[in-house]
Amino acid sequence: MRHRSPDFWSGLALAALGAYIVAQARGWDYLTDDGPGPGFFPLWYGIAILACSAWLVVFGKSPGANWQGAGRALATWGAVALAVTLVKFIGFALAFGAVAFFIVAVMYRRSPAVAALVALCTVAGFYLVFPLALGVALP
Amino acid sequence: MDIAAGLLHGFALALQPLNLLWCFVGVLLGTIVGIMPGLGPPATIAMLLPLTALMNPAGAIIMLAGIYYGAKYGGSTTSILLNVPGESASVVTCLDGYAMARKGRAGPALGIAAIASFIAGTVGVLGLMLVAPPLAKLALAFSSPEYFALMSLGLAMVVLLAGKSMVKALLAMLVGLWIAGIGTDVFTSQSRFTFGHMELLSGIDFVVVAIGIFALGEVLANMEAREEPQVLPVPKGLRNLLPTMQDLRDCRFAFAQGSVLGFLVGVLPGAGSTIASFISYGVEKAFSKRRDQFGTGVIEGVAAPEGANNSETGGALVPLLTLGIPGSGTTAILLAALVLWGFKPGPLFIAENPGMFWGLVASMYIGNVMLLVLNLPLVPLFAQVLRTPVYVLYPLIVGISIVGVYAGSGSLFDLYLLAGFGLLGYLMRKLDYPSAPLILGLVLGGAMERALRQSLMMSEGHLSILVSRPISAVMLALALVVLCIPLFSRFNTWRLRAMEQEES
Amino acid sequence: MKLALAFLAVLVSSSALAFKPTRTIEVVVHTGPGGGSDILARAVAGMIEKEKLLPVRMQVVNKTGGGGAVAAAYLAEKAGDENTIGFFTGVWLTGPLTSPEYKVTLRDLTPVARLVLEPALIAVKADAPFKTMADFINAAKQNPGQLKQSGGSPTSRDNVVRQLLQKHTGARWAYISFPGGGERIAALLGGHVNMMVIEPAEAGEHIRAGNMRVLAQVSDSRLPGFPGVPTLKEAGFDIPAVPQVRGVVAPPKIPAENVAYWEDVLLKLTKTASWKKFLADNQFEDGYQNAQDLTKFYDEFTARMREILKEAGLKLVR
């Protein structure tokens, strides 16, 4: 199978978005008595997205991206995303502390002690600066 | 009262020890607020309003104004050092500012930001002082068709931000337009692309997108490497920590056009400092000899937008003080403050309260000087931030992003969006999609759609309104010219290459 | 005997006011810092503190988004919480009618009191050919759809007034939405639109400077600041003077005695001098209504809104 360039996939994804936008836009008024309706703009840029992404799918030929480290990056993202969803239940301090710990310990392979220290200090720092000094609420 | 007399009167007022103190407090607070992402002048000023009731009004407005333009100085700090925009107007500074920091030139970047801000801030005050009333009348001639033309000009700048692939830049911009459209259509109350979530009814906050794509995206991209000895080289020696004479020379044009453009854009009600900084950046890039290097750490790419977002504050005060029309969120609160203290901002404000007006103008000169003196020596200090080991710095950036976003809206939903945009930023980096066009589309998309529909409502459906009015026709023509620039330069290179081949 | 009666009286009165807040009150507003509701809430909190009407502090909390939807939903989540109240405005009443995402209406919450009514003025540029409201309406009749009005969203009071006038007179003119107040005024002063509905506080200075002229007042009785301007009814247009309302609301499942307590505090507030000054400075009308009247008002208001918005061509979802 010929190795497809990443442009092919991103182009496809964007084409899907474009198609979705056009479909939604058709459900709204294109033109009303008072002028263009809510469907006007989305229809046009939806079509533009479809056109451009089609071009990409056919002609795109950027070299494959280096996906070597992607696992690590995505794992970090996963940690952040998880933490953010958990903030509602366990609060900022624990959630963020966990992320900080994760980044230091897992990503950078420092000892758990260092990781814990960093996590503690940063969380303390945030609490000092934001709610105490500036009166800004933390999640 | 004529200008000289007014200015003397103003300085007499502004130089009173108490007012000087308020000025200092204001600019200091403003700088701090600007550095913190998510915390902006509107929130700070609103929180301080009750306190100001206890102060004398002159001192109060001096302080609040200080917060307003001081924040523009501070906003560049995190943009340059951490790729986290401190405030929406500082997004453009991230482009070249952070690139400069990566090359070890964080100091000069921070320094030039302060210097450009000072020059532009002063120009802004000069403008306010000299041309405010006639300019305000001119600004009234600006309405929806002209705004549409202005936004089109702004969007046309995308061709200058394109980089290697024009198609990808276009796609990024279109996605930005789409994100801008999420929310409630203001003309028909029709909700668009909200997926049933009420939090999306008022659209997605720009700050969430910018911090997600820039800051989080950057952190995620950096996570790929196993180990990095030091993120950013820290320059040694004082000389490397400040801009050189060559740097200052390079930025001559940026200083000039950033100041003037920012001021003019600020005068228009509704056009904000983000637009001003984008346009200034675009103009700088268009006229620069090394335009291909923009985005890799060109110093004028920092000077132009930073200057523009500072002089914009001077401009935004023009409609407020001469007509009583607030042009942006912050000026709206300033208006409320003036009303709270018993003033009536409107066309007669300056004539009836010359003390307040000239006192304010004089204090702005003083404030800008204070800010320069405050910020420049802090540059080496800030640059040391880069010495932090990577494994502390990145969690810190993640934390600042989360807190910054939450501070702006108090919404957990925005945090989910932040995470989502962080992923998007990372993917865009991997797949070579430029992020600046997306931000451009996001910032201008909403305003442009509104302006177009308003224009067509005004003209009852005739598109001709866009070209029959002189100002909008001129700007649309300019937009077309901008769109043709890449063709022109490609044609030029082809021509040069053809000539070379002939000679050999 | 007298002592016993007095003792009984104290006992009875203190049990009637059995509710007293003991913790800082959270005041929810739907605008960001500096927005209309935010400023009102802060002003009210300040006045209550000054007049010592509450034993505890009030803390304003901003829950922006969705034109009030997020704030309303937040209040709904806090059912039974005695230390939270919210400030509502007209959008809380009209929003649920047009947006399916707007899930919580005022009826789902506990209405407490209505506080202010904001009247409005109908203004044109000073050099416009219209000297009275009738001039404008006649011009509109002769050139249907060509005159233009600037205003906020189509569910805002500006458009409601327009819809009512159009229906009443048979004239038609265009409506152009501008999200920001400043832009609307700039559009009028720049001559890009012909007329707008504007709040007295905003218009005051422009009128004084001679840039704007007021044709009529959208109010039941003449405002003290504009004694020479006829109300719409006086000018011959018998349409209800649609107010912009602001008031206080509480989370669901709050006991009636709490509501009575809040009503009492707010009633006391409206009698103070600082409140009267506040109203005069902002040119608001005192529109105090207790919870029961507010509920009635809400039902009437939404029923009328439904009709008006349907005629305006908006899609209704409730």
Overview of this protein structure:
The complex is a heterotrimer of chains A (139), B (504) and C (318). Chain A is mainly α and 139 residues long. Chain A has 2 domains: 6-59; 70-134, no CATH class. Helices cover 73% and strands 3% of the residues of chain A. In chain A, 38% of the residues are buried. The mean pLDDT of chain A is 76. Chain B has one domain. A two-stranded antiparallel sheet of chain B has the order 1-2. The termini of chain B are far apart. Chain C is of the alpha/beta class. Chain C contains 11 helices and 11 strands. In chain C, the strands form 2 sheets. Chain C has a 6-stranded mixed sheet with strand order 2-1-3-10-4-11, with helices on both faces. In chain C, strands 7-6-8-5-9 form a 5-stranded mixed sheet, sandwiched between helices. Chain C is globular. The termini of chain C are far apart. Chains A and B meet through α1, β2, α2, α3 and α4 of A and α8, α9, α18, α19 and α20 of B.
SSE pattern of chain A? HEEHHH
Counting DSSP E segments of at least 2 residues, the number of strands of chain C comes to 11
Helix content of chain A: over 70%
How far apart are the termini of chain C? 60 Å
Mean pLDDT of chain A: 76
Q: How many strands of chain A?
A: 2
CATH uppermost class of the largest domain in chain C: Alpha Beta
Distance between the termini of chain A: 49 Å
Please outline the major beta sheet of chain A: 2 strands, antiparallel
**Regions of chain A with pLDDT < 50 over 5+ consecutive residues?**
none
Question: Unreliable stretches of chain C, pLDDT < 50, 5 or more residues?
Answer: none
- Order of strands, main sheet of chain C, comes to 2-1-3-10-4-11
User: What is the 3D form of chain A?
Assistant: flat
Radius of gyration of chain A: 23 Å
Tally of separate domains of chain C: 2
What is the fourth-level CATH superfamily of the largest domain in chain C?
Bordetella uptake gene, domain 1
